[in-house]
Amino acid sequence: MQACVPDNQLIRLVAGELTAAEREQVMSHLHTCAKCRHAWEELRATWELLGQADGPLPEKDLAPRVLQAATRSRSRKIRWIAVARVAATIMLAAGIGIVAGVLAPPTAPYATGATAVSDEQMIEMLGLDAMDAGTDLLTGIFEADHTGSDMDQEQAL
Question: Rounded to an integer, what distance in angstroms lies between the CA atom of residue 107 and that of residue 110?
Answer without folding.
Answer: 8
